Amino acid sequence: MNRRHFISRTGLAAGLTILPSGLLRGQSANDKLNIALIGVWGRGTAHHGWLAQENVVALCDVDGEHLGLALKKFPKAKTYTDWRKCLEQKDLDAVVIATPDHHHAFISNWALNRDLHVYCEKPLAITVEEARTVRANWLGKKGKLATQVGTQMHAQPNYARMKEMILDGAIGDLQGVIGWGNRKIPREGYYAAEGKPPPYLDWNLWLGPAEKHAYSPKYFAGGDRGSNCLEWNMFRDFGIGQMGDMGSHMMDLCWNGIDANFPTSIRASGGPFNPEVTPVKLEAHFEHPANDWRGPIRLSWYQGGALPRSPYRGIDLDAIGHGAMFKGDKGFIIADYYKRLLIPSGKEADLSYYTPRTIEDQLPEIGKFHQNWLDACKDPAKSTCCDFEYSSQYIEQMLLGLVAHQVGEPLDYDGRVGRITNHDGANSLLRKKYRPGWVLNG
C-alpha cells in the first residue's frame, strides 16, 4: 500500500478525526454560541473580532482595567475575575482561553467537565500530567464537544502541501524530522518583590495554581501589562519557555507531516538546569516507532542558539528563524509557515519517482482557523485540525524533553501508561505541586 492510497483510505489526508453527530446542548448549525472569553487582553484581543459573530456572554480577567475595556466591546457580557466562578455561568456553550500558560490545562479540564466546547491558546499544558489529563477528559467527550489549540498557522496552505510531498515520497522514505526556534531570552530566576500589585490587578488570581511568588512589574514588562508572554513564560511555575511557545508552532509543523504518537526514548542537552527558569539553549531528540506508512524516525528540537546542521552550505537555517526540516533517503524538505524548499539528494534523487498532486487531488483546505472550531462546535459531524488529542501528544513530547534535560540522562518512555521506565525518580517530574485550593481536574 503506497502512502497516497493509505492516506485516502484512512481519512488521514485531512489530518482530521470524523466525529459522530449529536450535540450536548442542542445547537443547530445556524445558532450562535454563548461564549466566555477568559483572558480578555493581550492575546485575548486577537479573538475579539471573530468572537463578535457569536454571543460573548461572559468575560473574565484578573486585570480590572482590561476587563472594563473588553466590556465596551461586549457590553452584554457578565464579568468575572475568577475563571472558576465564570465557568459556573449556566448559559455557556463554549469557552475561549487566552490566560497565562499555567492556567490553560486547569481551565480546559474544568470546561470539559462542564460539557463546554474549548478553544485554548498554546501551550495546552505545562506538565505531562496536565497534557494527559486534558486529553483523557476530551476523549471522554469526543463526538459531543469540539476542542482546538491556538496554533492558528496550521491553516496555512503550506502545511497541507508539505504533508502531501512527504506522503507521496518527494524525499523518499522519511528518516528524520527537525524543528527549531532561534529566540534567545535569558532569565536568571524569579524576580524579587518591587512594591504591591496595582489596585486593578488581582495578583493572587494571576498566580492561580502556581507556587506563591512576590509581585514584580518585571513579569509584565515589554507589553501592555502581561500582553507579552515572553516576559513570564520562561519561569517554570508560569510556562515552559520556548518549548511551549514557538515549540508548539514548529512541532505542529513537524507533527502534521509524520502522523506520530508518543516517543519511546528521549535525550536532551543544553544550558545548565535552573530550577526556576526553563533553558535558553537546548536540543532534544525523540525516537518514534514505525507506523502504517513509514519506518521508525528520530524527531528533534533545537532552540536558543542550538541548531541542526544544514543539508546544504548555501542555506542558513538560523536566518530562517523558526522552521522545520524533513530528511528522507532521497532528499530534504525545509519549511516554515509559508514556504517549502525541496532539496533532492543522492544518486536516485532525480525526482522521476515523484509527481505533484493535481488541484483536485490535494488535501482539503482548512479555511479560517477559528471558523474551523466554531463549525465543529455547532456540528460535531465536523472536526477541528488541532484538537486536544493531536495537540496534547506533541506538547507531552516537548515536556518530556524538559524532563530529560533536568535529569541529564536518556529516558525510555511508555506512552501507553505515561511512565518513564528506566528512571523511577524522573516520573516525579511529570507532574507538579499546586497551591492549596487549586484542582487540576475540577
What secondary-structure arrangement, pairings included, does this model have?
Elements: H1 3-10, E1 34-38, H2 48-51, E2 55-60, H3 64-73, E3 78-80, H4 83-86, E4 94-97, H5 104-113, E5 117-120, H6 128-141, E6 147-149, H7 157-167, E7 174-181, H8 203-207, H9 246-255, E8 265-270, E9 282-288, E10 297-303, H10 317-320, E11 323-328, E12 331-335, E13 340-344, H11 369-378, H12 388-407, E14 411-414, E15 419-420
Parallel strand pairs: 1-2, 1-4, 2-3, 4-5, 5-6, 7-10
Antiparallel strand pairs: 7-11, 8-9, 8-14, 9-10, 11-12, 12-13, 14-15
Provide an overview of this structure.
The chain has two domains: 18-153, Rossmann fold; 154-185 and 242-363 and 388-430, Dihydrodipicolinate Reductase, domain 2. A hairpin with a 4-residue loop joins strand 14 and strand 15 (419-420). The model is unreliable at 1-24 (pLDDT under 50). The chain has twelve helices and 15 strands. The radius of gyration is 22 Å and the shape is globular. Helix 6 runs antiparallel to helix 12 and helix 9 (246-255) crosses helix 12. Strands 13-12-11-7-10-9-8-14-15 form a nine-stranded mixed beta sheet. It has a six-stranded parallel beta sheet with strand order 3-2-1-4-5-6, with helices on both faces. 25% of the residues lie in helices and 17% in strands. The protein starts with a helix and ends in a 22-residue tail after the last strand. By secondary structure, the protein is of the alpha/beta class.
First CA to last CA: what distance? 45 Å
Question: How many helical stretches?
Answer: 12
Give the second-level CATH assignment, the architecture of the largest domain: 2-Layer Sandwich
Average pLDDT works out at: 92
Largest beta-sheet details: 9 strands, mixed
Percent of residues in helical segments? Answer: 10-25%
The top-level CATH class of the largest domain is: Alpha Beta
CATH homologous superfamily annotation of the largest domain:
Dihydrodipicolinate Reductase, domain 2
Instruction: Please state roughly what percent of the residues sit in beta strands, choosing from under 5%, 5-15%, 15-25%, 25-35%, 35-45% or over 45%.
Output: 15-25%
Shape summary: globular
Q: Give the number of domains.
A: 2
The helix/strand class is alpha/beta
Order of helical and strand elements: HEHEHEHEHEHEHEHHEEEHEEEHHEE
Evaluate the radius of gyration. Answer: 22 Å
Low-confidence stretches: 1-24
* Strand element count: 15
Order the strands across the largest sheet as they lie in space.
13-12-11-7-10-9-8-14-15
Task: Output the CATH topology of the largest domain.
Answer: Dihydrodipicolinate Reductase, domain 2
Pfam families: GFO_IDH_MocA
GO molecular function, one term: nucleotide binding
Protein name: Gfo/Idh/MocA family oxidoreductase
Organism: Coraliomargarita sinensis
